[in-house]
């Protein structure tokens, strides 16, 4: 498939899950996301792309810090404004494409802004619209005229995805976008035929149909992902956001006969093997109905190396009955880490902006009667050479792992339905729950205070979306805590791995209306063990 | 003094203390600040001003909500962008004037932005720079290219105010700005000659010297304000922000021979007489060294009416010994309120954007053996006719008032210095303090939880500016609580008046370094009675 760039060729820079502000308070890793975002924008400028297409989670936090918003505005203004003319036109009704915007037209056509590289983005699950105002962080950027937020559906009954129709020379692209929606809900809507992709009236088949989506692609539970075959087969290319592993080379779904490109994140947010795959962004060329995806390796991403050791596989080296075996294990791990540090050093790309300290993760399966050594003391040794000294080592037992299943606590036991008329105080329910859950779930208490407040807030508001806000708030709060605030007390209970895979906090709120119109609430925390909806995507 | 507008005349729209986002969650008053901000910008456009000059507190919250930032960006983009050419030039070194900005030049000279009305603003005490990044909400706007934040001094030892030099035709303005600084500190710096206003080298006297400042102007304690005579006498006009009472007509300081214009706020944030003065903004004409300040009445400001009753002044009407006197008083107050509602209705300006429900405040001096009636029941009656039903009535006793003095609690008694080596937990200190303070200070407990968290946050960070952040956070939190979240429990203890004048929460943190380098902390709340630094400015 030939693809000489000419006046008929779209050049599109494709990236996703940039997670601006991730770990921004970490003295070592705090700037990583901003540095790489600038690299991405610089690639766009150097390659003189027609536009940038982002697949969601530009921001890590739903309400990004002032510093993060400020840096983002700075980068967009620096790289995406200028005199280079934009060479494609928009044929669709922009008032429809951007209907929820205060400035419902593409930014490069605004006569007061001099845009050289328009950015189009859907929102992810991290930066999705929340609150009574139903705004998201992207809307700040679009209101400032620096980004085009699209693919937002405002109805929960029915989703009509109406494409932005782009033309450059003789090439026509129908750009479809769908911002993140809870997987279960979207799955249900697909099944119930509530999702429709609208098609241009005249000569349907002359369009290159590009769809960008931000959902679980790999299966996390029965309906907790979006099967590829749910997507219309008239699509030519799907850009799949949310999954952090870089699988950017278009992969053909034989059944649907469309291609899927999964750019992956531009920052490591979980210490899992998927994140160790080299990070890339894509330079997509589209001419007529032909396309080519060029990989661009990101040079400023902090290197991440992960390896596994199974102690039981080295009977020659480790004998559980040997009193000094633990020292032997520790020494062995240290050698390993040293080797990984060497590899990391060799693999650095010599880009002055690439951070020096690598992220190192050594997973030690100590099944077979071995004892873990003190991770804390081990970490001390690498304080100055590793970006994540606190969680270099992760001990686990494979057998243990196998046994783990998705189990939920039984709330009926924990929270009994109140007698008619009586009003249960939400706080009491929560307390009651925590008291019962405590033994089982060490961590739950850590969020109790936040809990009380959050629920209070919800009760004050009595708005539907307050529930969502609340859940998001709780999840973020818990994850934040686990990531940033963890104390020695919980140190050995948690590590990066478990955080992602084992601890999966969900807030369940059941409420029904009393005759007098007052709401009564059931509140419960669900601590799921085993795979979580967040696996691999932080 | 004649002032025909011509190519030598600057037309400057002057406003301050717009407090965007004030009470944004109030179902009735939530939009007031946004509506009036749009009116102000519309006046600027209709009058084809050369620029807008703001005196600080554009935002009410240091970290404004997403909605507030979004609305602000929307308004600025709508009103301040366009093709009308800007007709003045800047002669000073902009890299100096805007040295802390990522885009250190005035927005209308940015070739990528089409600005028709440049906005220049200093920051106020509400939206001043905080945090490790030392950014303020205005910096988001300036980074987006929609506002020019100036008058920021980054040193605490020495303040050199270097003016922005503007020229239009034959008129030259030296624009000096000084963003809000804690009054005591700035007072001290003035006394110690640490504040210098730089002057243009060539023909000093040909400049019209305009200075905008955001500090206490009226005396709140010995050094808790900035005396006018502190300001250099070469200044021609001072635009004084922070004080909410509109005294916009230039008032001559005979000693210094300069004029002072105090525009006042564009929204009522405290139910004090000063806020009842009709709200205006100014249209300042400057030609050569002559000026004229034109008052523009704001038409969208919610009307506010305040009156006092002294029961003891009506022996004919009220006899404390009469068993039914309380009903009589209540009936009398109701008549009063009805009359005030009539006046309010008459005084509405017929602008469709002006909110209908007025703010009403009736202050009742019940000294002389009278009893207050239930404010709560009284409020019910006006739920649908008044914007502030909960605090229409304010009972007070004049004698009582007289007795009140500035008293601070003695912390040595409350918090005893820990024995060498022992480490006191901050939370314990706070608890300890609250337990002791409780009897004296009913309100302190309301913020205890927030307290615990805030202090925790500080402890995590161990940054100097975290303390400031923390104090600000606490003050805001408390004020917010008093304004928005107050419950019947505290209803009669607080009202708008006392909130401003009597309750004055301050967080005191003393910390010293242990031999081992650990910090030990003393934390205490100071609840001052009597005048507070916040009097009259919310």
TrEMBL record, chains A, B:
Keywords: Chromosome, DNA damage, DNA repair, Endonuclease, Exonuclease, Hydrolase, Manganese, Meiosis, Metal-binding, Nuclease, Nucleus, Telomere. One of its GO terms (molecular function) is single-stranded DNA endodeoxyribonuclease activity. One of its GO terms (cellular component) is chromosome, telomeric region. CDD domains: MPP_Mre11_N. Pfam families: Metallophos, Mre11_DNA_bind. GO terms for biological process: double-strand break repair via homologous recombination; double-strand break repair via nonhomologous end joining; meiotic DNA double-strand break formation; mitochondrial double-strand break repair via homologous recombination; mitotic G2 DNA damage checkpoint signaling; mitotic intra-S DNA damage checkpoint signaling; telomere maintenance. Belongs to the MRE11/RAD32 family. This is Double-strand break repair protein MRE11. SMART domains: Mre11_DNA_bind. It is found in: Chromosome, Telomere; Nucleus. Residues 291-458 form the Mre11 DNA-binding domain. The active site is at residue 126. Its cofactor is Mn(2+). It comes from Catharus ustulatus (Russet-backed thrush).
């Amino acid at each position: 498939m030939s693809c000489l760039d000419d006046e008929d060729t779209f050049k599109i820079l494709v990236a996703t899950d940039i997670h601006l502000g991730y770990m921004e308070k970490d003295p070592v890793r705090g700037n990583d996301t901003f540095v790489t975002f600038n690299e991405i924008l610089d690639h766009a400028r150097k390659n003189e792309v027609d536009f940038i297409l982002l697949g969601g989670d530009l921001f890590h936090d739903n309400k990004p810090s002032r510093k993060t918003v400020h840096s983002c505005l700075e980068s967009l203004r620096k790289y995406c404004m200028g005199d280079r003319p934009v060479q494609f036109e928009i044929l669709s009704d922009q008032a429809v494409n951007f209907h929820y915007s205060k400035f419902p037209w593409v930014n490069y056509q605004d006569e007061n802004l001099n845009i050289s590289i328009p950015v189009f983005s859907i929102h992810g699950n991290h930066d999705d619209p929340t609150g009574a105002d139903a705004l998201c962080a992207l809307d700040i950027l679009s209101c400032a005229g620096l980004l085009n937020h699209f693919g937002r559906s405002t109805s929960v009954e029915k989703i009509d995805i109406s494409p932005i129709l782009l033309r450059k020379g003789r090439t026509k692209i129908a750009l479809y976008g769908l911002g993140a929606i809870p997987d279960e809900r979207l799955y249900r809507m697909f099944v119930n035929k509530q999702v429709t992709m609208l098609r241009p009236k005249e000569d349907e088949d002359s369009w290159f149909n590009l769809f960008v989506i931000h959902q679980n692609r790999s299966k996390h539970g029965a309906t907790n992902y979006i099967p590829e075959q749910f997507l219309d087969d008239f699509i030519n290319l799907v850009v799949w956001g949310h999954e952090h592993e870089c699988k950017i080379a278009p992969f053909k779904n034989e059944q649907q006969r469309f291609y899927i490109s999964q750019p992956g994140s531009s920052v490591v947010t979980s210490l899992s093997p998927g994140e160790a795959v080299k990070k890339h962004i894509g330079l997509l060329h589209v001419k007529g109905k032909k396309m080519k995806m060029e990989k661009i390796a990101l040079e400023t991403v902090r290197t991440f190396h992960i390896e596994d050791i199974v102690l039981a596989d080295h009977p020659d080296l480790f004998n559980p009955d040997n009193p000094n075996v633990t020292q032997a294990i520790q020494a062995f791990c240290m050698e390993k880490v040293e080797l990984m540090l060497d590899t990391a050093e060799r693999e650095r790309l010599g880009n002055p902006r690439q951070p020096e300290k690598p992220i190192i993760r050594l997973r030690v399966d100590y099944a077979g009667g071995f004892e873990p050594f003190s991770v804390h003391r081990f970490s001390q040794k690498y304080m100055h050479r590793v970006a994540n000294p606190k969680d270099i080592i992760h001990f686990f037992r494979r057998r243990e792992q196998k046994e783990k299943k998705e189990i939920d606590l039984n709330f009926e036991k924990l929270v009994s339905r109140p007698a008619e008329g009586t009003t249960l105080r939400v706080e009491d329910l929560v307390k009651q729950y925590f008291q019962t859950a405590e033994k089982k779930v060490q961590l739950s208490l850590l969020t109790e205070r936040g809990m009380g407040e959050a629920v209070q807030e919800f009760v004050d508001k009595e708005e539907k979306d307050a529930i969502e806000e609340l859940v998001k708030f709780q999840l973020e709060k818990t994850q934040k805590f686990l990531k940033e605030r963890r104390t020695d007390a919980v140190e050995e209970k948690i590590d990066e791995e478990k955080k992602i895979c084992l601890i999966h906090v969900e807030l369940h709120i059941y409420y029904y209306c009393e005759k007098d119109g007052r709401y009564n609430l059931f509140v419960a925390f669900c601590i799921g063990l085993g795979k979580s909806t967040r696996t691999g995507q932080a």
